[in-house]
Each structure stands twice: as structure tokens, then as C-alpha cells.
Amino acid sequence: MPLWRSLILNLADRISPERLPPLELTSRPVDTGMLFGDRLALPWYRTVFSNISDVVSADTSPPLDLTSRPVDLGELIGDELSHGWWVSLLDGLRYRLSPEKQPPLSLTSKPIPAYGANNWLQLMDWSSLLTTPKVFLPDIPLDAQFIAAEVLTPVPATAGGPEGSPVPLSQELWAAQMQFKRDLSRSRFRQKVWMALVAAEAIFLLSYLFNFKF
Q1: How far apart, in whole angstroms, are the C-alpha atoms of residue 47 and residue 54?
Q2: Which letter, b or e, does each residue of 51-69 get, where b requires 16 or more Cβ atoms within 10 Å of its Cβ?
Q3: Does pTM surpass 0.70?
């Protein structure tokens, strides 16, 4: 959810909260014991006594009855991380001396030429990934090349000519400069608007917290 929409919804809920009908439960509630939030709100002496009672006389639960067949997953990653460093060292030496023999990999897709990816990392060419015939576009006309070079090459507006007269500025370059300045001013304006919204949201949250506490 964007910031402005969250701010508007918070203001609307603060000014005119939605009045909902009373909740009607049609199902039988299940006793889940003490909630986690209530357990954290207990004082420390109650938790100490409850821990002592759990150690002295622990609750005996019935044995777990499995109705499905368990799957052997091997050693869990938590158990592997709990081993000492010498265990991983011995396993590494064992894998190095006698590696585990795996069955050959069966590929169902067409392999892509890597162009020497074993030696260095290189991006793939789209021509090698596409199976359609290649289409060669015509070259840029000569006039368009001159226009592009004139736009990209900066021409000073006050440079003197052979007789000291100013050289006229290119229309394409002037349009590009004006567009860049316009985009820059718009981005700064958007930045100021977003900063104002963030400040208003922070002030609203702080005032809400203080009003809620005091």
C-alpha cells in the first residue's frame, strides 16, 4: 500500500471510525490455553514458579500415534551445523578421497552453448537463444547520422565565429536541455511532496502514540 493511501486511511479511521455490528460466533470456541501475549505479560515470579513446577512434575502427554509412514530425510541441517569443526573436516577429506558416485544426469532440455563459460563469465547472446530466423534491419540514413552527431556534440552558445559572431545553438540540443531541466525540477518537486507526507505521517504516529499512552 502506498504511503499517501495509508495516511488517508489512518486519518479517516481516526476522525470517523467505522462502526461494525457486534461479532456473533456461530462455532464453538476451542480452548487453546493461555495466549502468547498474556504469557509475556506475566510477572517474572510467576514464570519462575511455573518453570519449577514443570521441572518437578512435568505434564505426561500420551505417546504420539503416527498414522503415516515417515520418510527418511537423512541428517537435518540443524544437526549438521551442531557438529564440531573436526567432523566437517573429516567429511571433506572423505568426500575428497572417495567421492559419492551419483547416477548420470538425464537432461530433458536442449543444452545452450556457453561460449567458454568454464573460464570466464559471459552474457549469452540472444541470437543463440532464439530459434527464429535472424532479421537484419537497414542501416540508419546518412542524414539521421548527421542529426544524431549534431545533437550529441555540445555546441557552446557564445562561441565566436571567424568574425567574432556567436554561433547559433542547435534546436535539438536546446530541446534536450530544456527537457532535462524540466524533468529535474519535477523530480525535486516530487521529492519535497514525499518528504512532507513522510513528516506528516511521523507527526501523526507520534501524536497517536502519546495520546494512546497518556
Answers
A1: 10
A2: eeeeeeeeeeeeeeeeeee
A3: no
User: What contacts 172, CB < 8 A, 6 or more positions away?
Assistant: 147, 150, 151
How far is Cα 196 from Cα 35, in angstroms, rounded to an integer? 40
Q: Are 170 and 151 in contact (CB under 8 A)?
A: yes
The one-letter amino acid code at 163 reads E
Nearest alpha carbon to residue 151 among 173, 167, 169: 173
Residues 6+ apart with CB under 8 A from 18: none
Residue 57, CA distances (Å) to 51, 76, 139 in order? 10, 31, 88
- At residue 141, what is the residue type? P
In angstroms, the CA 149 to CA 172 distance is 11
Per-residue pLDDT of the chain (214 residues; tens, 9 = 90+): 888 889 988 998 888 888 888 888 888 878 888 888 888 888 888 888 888 888 888 888 888 888 888 788 777 777 777 888 888 888 888 888 888 888 888 877 776 655 555 555 556 666 666 666 767 777 766 554 455 555 445 545 444 444 445 555 577 778 888 888 888 888 889 999 999 999 988 888 888 777 755 5
- For residues 204 and 9, the answer to whether their CB atoms sit within 8 Å is no
Could you give the 3-state DSSP secondary structure of residue 109?
Answer: coil
**Total residue length of the chain:** 214
